[in-house]
Structure formats: C-alpha cells, structure tokens
Amino acid sequence: MKKLIALLLAMAMVFALVSCGSSSAPASSGAAAPAESAAPAQDAAPAQDAAPAEDSAPAEATKTDTLKVGLMVHTTGWFAGVDTPNYNEFNAMVKFINDNGGWTVGDTTYTLEAVCVDGQSDYPALRTAAMSLVDSGVKFVVETNDFWVNSCADVFEDEGILHASAYCVSNATGYLIPENPLAFTGSDGTVGDYQACFAALHEYYPDVKSVVLANDDNGLSTESLDLMRSYAAPYDIEVLDTMVIYPGDTTDYSSYAKQIVDSGADAFMGNGSPDAYGNLLKAVRALGADTVMACAQGKPISMLMEYAGEKASYNGFSLGTSSREADQAKNPQMLNDLVQVVAQEYGDDAAATFDGAAANTLYMMLLMMQKAGSVEPKDVAAAWTAGGQVESIYGTTNIGGTETYGVENHAIGHPRPVSVMNPDAEGGWEFKDWIEISIP
What is the pLDDT of residues 46-89, one digit of tens each? Predict the structure, then answer.
C-alpha cells in the first residue's frame, strides 16, 4: 500500500502510444509502426475452429478490414512482473489469429491490429494511457487488474468503448458495477481461483479442515469472507475470522508467517504474486511449520518455488498451467498452440510462465463479436450479457457473475489447472488436472 500511495503522488508522465504485436520487448516510450499482418500459416487450423460462440458460426466473408484492439497493462514499474506476461500473451493471441487468416464477423474478415499502452505502474500515467487509447480509435480494450482500472473506467465508458479486465482481484473494487455497463472480465479472477483452491484442497489435501486467508493489501478484504465460506462449505472446511494482510511492497514476511502459524490453521490461502507467496512459504517453513500452502494464482508453480527454495517447496499447490511436453495432452489444444507462439516470439522462459488471462480476455471479446455478428461495442456487450457457454482457451467456459458481482453476466468461469509441489517429481512438482469453475 505504501508503494501505491507513493505512486499516486507521482506526476503523470506523457508517453507515446505504442502499436505492438512484434516479437520485441515492450517499450515504455517511443512510437512504433502499426503492427503488420503476419502471413497466414500454411498448415494451421483456422482460429474459429478453436471455439466459436454458440449459434455464432461465421458467415461466408466477402469483405476484409482491420480491427484495432487495445491493451492497457503495466510493462514498466513495480507491477510489470505481473503484466509483462499479459503483454506477451495478448500479442501472441493477435499473431495466432492473424496467422490463421484473421477473424470473421458477419461478412467481414478482420486483421487484428494491437495498440498497446504502458500504465507505468502509476495511476495518473494509467489514466493518460487510457485517454491515448481513446485517441487511437480503438473500440475494445483489454486491461490490467481491476483495482487499477476502476480508477479510469469512466474514460472508456464515456467513449462507448468495451473494456475488460484480465483479472479481477475482488468482487468489491467498484469495477464491475451497474454504472459500468461496458466493463467485463475475461478470466476467473480471484473469486473463481479461490473456488478452485477449495476444491483442490478437498481433492489433494483431504486432511485440511481449516484455512486462514493470507494476502497483500490489494487483495481480499473482510467483505469477501462470506463468499469464501460459501466456497469452503461443501468440503466442510472452516475459514477463520482472522486474515493475514501484508503490504504489497514488503520484503520481510517473517511476522506474517508467524501470524499464519499462530492461527493454527491447517492451510493458508491467498492470491499473492509468485515472489510474495514464495517468500511467505519460505518464512512459514523457517518457523518449522508444515502448513499447506494454497496459492490462488495462475502463474506456474515453478516460479513460486524459485523464491521459496527447494527445502521449503512441499505441501503446496498453485493454479498454474504446465507447458511441459509430457503434460500437454491434459491441456486444451488452443492453449498449447498459444504457448508455442509465445515461445517463438518471446522465448522459452516466457512460454514456461504462461497464464493466458489477457489472451483469453481478448478471445472472449472476439467470440462475442461473432455471437453478435457485429463489431459495435454495445452489440458485443449485449451478446456477452446474454450468457451461455463458449469454448475459451481454457476449455468449456460459463458466462455468469450476476450473483457475485451484482451485474448480469459480465464475468466468466473457466476451468483452472492445479500444479502440486512434489519433491519426488520432475522439477519438484507435478501437473494434476483441470477443475471446472462456474461463477454464480
């Protein structure tokens, strides 16, 4: 929180609009030429085969056009560690679609043009970035986490731009609200990830009967306790009244680890970043505790283990995917294809940390365009709020969120993978399976 306050006081910096989509690293300033359409792959399956929305088979295209799609994430500053993968994966999706012939809506096949801006991990700069996207003429924007973008949602709402957060950390941030009819989210977010964590505890750690929630000060609040308890109730798991909240910029987790151990809970659960949760686990183990760690986060567990260290990496799991060849048969094919694009464009290390939230958020927009037969934001929003099921990059995905967020069908629930620490397995962890999720 201290860092957030400091950032809020920073002067808004003027920076150039960046058109992106190449294999180069994200730039924080300077202009680049608009992304060129890549040549269609010769033997790749059409993108539409992956998952057109129900009742939305594309009509035979007779026209071609270009469709600008915006991305507003932080590729510099303290939040870049979270958002750089979103940048990579969003642009991998753009390339995948274009290489497979573009995206057909109605009688028009569109080449996607990515327009990316950097929020610089700073609220004033983020608002400047939002306004630059408006100036670029985009009608659709994929955004960073909700606690950032609720501060500038009005910029897009006022201009009639459909915008969707790649990840919602709470159902109480003021982002998905009736006053933002064009705001959506294209991943499970915290509520879906916690739902998956309780199911995973029941499946892989059946002896766990109590959980203490542990998160940074940008995550869960006491307002979410009832929701967490509703997810735990089917498995007879108690969620303690006590919550362990640590500053997002802390580097010393020892006192928070002690709070976890002193709570007496069988497991601690939160959606902290891999570095935070890895260091928190390390601090818990340093106190001699074997408490189960449930990380409600989609980054691969190997990232978390790098921070925890080999000796501490046991009795824990995350909701990370696996790009290992031996595990690919468990993944949806489209996810595997996108991992390959990320590897080609950004390297094997980037592919190994694939999460897909921003890529899936863009894909949801594209599916809803097909369903609406239109690229007008209000039509696409109406198609999304009509609900139903689609096949996203994660598999069968349910549109919902009415009860959770208080707005009808502005969220989705998609399957979540589970990776479990196992010192005897390759790399010290094993990829289990996918858990079905539905956001009420």
Answer: 334 444 444 555 557 789 999 999 999 999 998 998 899 999 99
Domains identified in the chain and CATH numbers: 2-187+335-354+356-409 (3.40.50.2300), 190-320+417-435 (3.40.50.2300)
Q: In one letter, which amino acid is 421?
A: M
Helix, strand and coil content of the chain, in percent to the nearest 5, comes to 40, 20, 40
What pTM was computed for the model? 0.83
Express each pLDDT in 379-405 by its tens digit. Answer: 999 999 999 999 999 999 999 999 888
Say how far apart CA 271 and CA 279 lie, in whole Å: 13
Q: Tell me, what's the pLDDT at 29?
A: 35
Within the chain, which residues score under 70 in pLDDT? Answer: 1-59, 171-172, 219-221
Q: Is 155 helix (H, G, I), strand (E, B) or coil?
A: helix
* Nearest in space to 117 (alpha carbons), one of 157, 78, 86: 86
Q: Are strands 388-392 and 395-400 parallel, antiparallel or unpaired?
A: antiparallel
Q: What is the pLDDT of residue 82?
A: 86
Coil, helix or strand at residue 339: helix
Give, as one character, the DSSP assignment of residue 409. T
Q: Are strands 108-118 and 18-20 parallel, antiparallel or unpaired?
A: antiparallel
Of 251, 100, 176, nearest to 402 (Cα)? Answer: 176
Rounded to a whole number of angstroms, the CA Rg of the chain reads 21
Counting Cβ atoms within 10 Å, is residue 177 exposed (0-12), middle (13-18) or buried (19+)?
middle
Compute the distance between CA of residue 211 and CA of residue 400 in angstroms, rounded to an integer. 27
Residues in the chain: 440
Closest C-alpha to 165, from 281, 303, 45, 71: 71
Query: Nearest 5 degrees, angle CA 262-CA 268-CA 273?
Result: 125
Q: Which string of DSSP letters, residue by residue, matches 182-206?
A: TEEE-S-HHHHHHHHHHHHHHHH-T
Both tokens of 388, joined, read 């139903």
Determine the Cα–Cα distance for residues 55 and 271; give it in Å rounded to an integer: 36
